[in-house]
Write a structure and sequence with these properties.
five-stranded parallel sheet; 20 helices; Rossmann fold; about 50% helix; alpha/beta; Helicase, Ruva Protein, domain 3; Beta-Lactamase
Amino acid sequence: MNHWKKLHLLDDDFSLFYQIATSIQEICDLDEMLEAILSKIKQAFRIEGASIVLHDEPNKEFYFLRTAEAEMKDDPFFMKEMRFPDDVGVAGWVMREGQTVVIQNVARDERFFNGLDKKKGFVTRSMICVPLKTRKKFTGVLYALNKIQGQFTEKEAKILEILSTPIAISIENARLYGELKRHADLLEEQNRHLCYKAKERFNKAGIIGNSRPMSQVFSLIDKVMDTPTTVLIQGETGTGKELVARVIHFSGPFKDKPFVAENCGALPENLLESELFGHVRGAFTGAIADKKGLFEIADGGTIFLDEIGEMSPALQVKFLRVLQEGQIRPVGGNRYKKINVRVIACTNRDLEQEVKKGRFRQDLFYRINVFPISLPPLRHRREDIPLLVNHFLGKACKKLKKSRPHVSPGAMELLTSFNWPGNIRQLENEMERALILAGNAHEIIPEHLSPNLRHDLPHEGYISPGSTNLKDVVQQVEARMIRQALAKTGGNRSKAARMLGVTRQGLINKISRYGLAV
């Protein structure tokens, strides 16, 4: 072979290496990459086919990953069904010996397994079979099949051995990537699930909060909602007692049953008795027909009695019988009706004090106080105020069809420092009012808030009532200092961090922890 011919063959070899290396680097899809590589091998070696067979170690089998044999490469049945034991054929020998084999005439080689040819309709005459290995393990084999002219050479076998390493590594990387992607997808799904559960927990049907007092409320709701137990919800006006009652009902087994609500302080005694227990025709002037009471209407579900502390002593006696006997008697009637109702009562009064003062029956108090839930006033859960501000601002924007403005640090400082005697209801109204006053402004500033908020700012050493441990006090002081620093720097976190003597990331972490981001 002359010098120029050797150079030409060398150029062909380098060209093949370059094309395969390019395919490995530039083609992201594994199937597409292997098809390109096998096609280039088939063309460069002038052969009828090239295939890659992978080893399935757990099942002790080989299976075809990709083939460049024209008769089979687009046959899905072939790709799925062409599996064979790993202890037979040339592939089995290559795996056991860990070395390349060149067979010029397979009919004369006892290692050849012709079962595959019968399945795929391809006649194998000659082959090179090269092991695919990484540093970790044996991966499979690379076949070059049926030399069209002449015979396979040792040089061609050597070239395939050189190519086998990057091919094996590419396949192994694809496998690892697949495992990592599946793991990442699983983590993403778990993260979505955890986020959903967290959102569900800290935004239960509109009850918003992540403070410790609200976490305790959510825990109690979770425990009681699947039971028929009588619940007493206590809390100041505007703390969301009816909302809690609705969550208990509609989150549990009673959700498809009636939920009936009545305010015991909204009606005179005689009308309230008729509303609750019903009446018969002729029971009083205007009773022209029998009427079902709310207890009967709520049968099988929940009756919610708001402001139970306003119920008269005489009506308390009748209500006690309902709880004890599970029976009601309509006004003017002489027969009792059996009912099955879960009672949720609520009050803004301290019923224990009402009992001591003789204004509420002690036996009735113990009957309704089976599972008490105390809702904290807003001034005892100030860290929830930024969450509520954002929620009510969004709600008001939707109602008024306005774009959502930003809340300035100064305005947020006033909102979180105010005592909120009207609690959540007052805060909701305040945000709607501020949005209207802001007009088309992109920011709600202190001037858009009610005068009493601006004039009722607590002093520097103010600590929320109910703070019983050092950790609570430290958190309140930290949150207040961060708000003040943000207000002074116009919301610039870098400047605020320098002012406070902390790192910017440390400040960001605290802003997130205390829900101060606006």
